[in-house]
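Slide 14.
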Amino acid sequence: MARSDDWLLRVDDLSVHFESSKGVAHAVDHVSFDIYPHETLALVGETGCGKSVTARSILRLVPEPPGSYASGSISLRNGDGSVTEILTATERTVRSIRGDRISMIFQDPGKALNPGLTIGRQLAEVFGEHRMSMILGNAGFDPEKPSRTATKIVQQRAGLLERGVYRLTHLRAPKALQKSIDDSVMQALADTGIPNPRKILGSYPHELSGGMKQRVMIAQALACDPDLLIADEPTTALDVTIQARILDLIHEMQQRRGMAILYITHDLSLVRQFADRVAVMYAGRLAEIGPSAGVLASPQHPYTQGLLAAIPRPATPRGQLAAIPGTVPQLIDPPPQCHFASRCSFAASACHQVTPQLLTIADKHDVSCHRFDTASRIDVSPQDMPSAATLGGVASS
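Slide 15: predicted structure.
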């Protein structure tokens, strides 16, 4: 698979396993892709295909155990050209990356936000963790030679230390520090279009609507101007009208700040509107990846074709909505074969014996299907597999 060198994040041969009483579940199986600066990559697929596990792996949030990183690497390019390998970095290094260079919007803000803390306190943690110099500078302290007590007060205010450890009376400008934190939090909230952000500071999550909580999550994720934003189905719990506003907001802030986005979804209609490239995932593996316009106009993997054929259209007769036959295979110790073979009408004998590799078939368009593995010794006869014309016909029908 051809890969460019100007990437921001590189996921290379990533495999994530989970131990269970029935065996080892291969949640992510040898997945590789790049994310480039300023682009939007959509990772799509049905529920349980490994999208969220892949996203959490980028921030090393997979619980160990029962999870484990069985193979691969995740590399983040730094401003000076050096590379940080996330899976082998120290916990301190990874903590410095989370929320700063890479941020994540989780699926359900009602579960992601702490119900026992105010919105102001939860956003203050981000600034106390990653923007200490900015907070101290705005309060009139020298960021190069900060007062140790002032630093502790900011950490205390942000919830990073127990309250009462350091007394405000020891500072010449305690209120300035509090104001600096509150101003930073309010600005982050205001950037997402939340009205009256000062009032929101003292509110708890249960006092906000679903759309407001999602905006708080976006404010928290973008507070430190990350290089990469991971949006894991950020509109799942919202109604349709609010969904459009949230997606427009994310896109607008991407244009304003120039960040890259990994957008995780199962809704292909949103991919066409927001994504530069799309990666289709099935049963823990990548089936197809390429420019969204090209993949959606001429899908080459049978699974991608099935997904597109299942999108409802005005001309579709009632009761005749297309569906992919069969069910997703079990990922417990899977045998070496194409994971989609049991559901694919084009499957040949080789598809049940050998795992296909991700191969480049066009400019920046890669497909994991034996149909295109012409360099291998796999015997796939023409009558067993569809021709390129047939694949295109299925996609457009």
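Speaker note: The first helix runs from residue 51 to 58.
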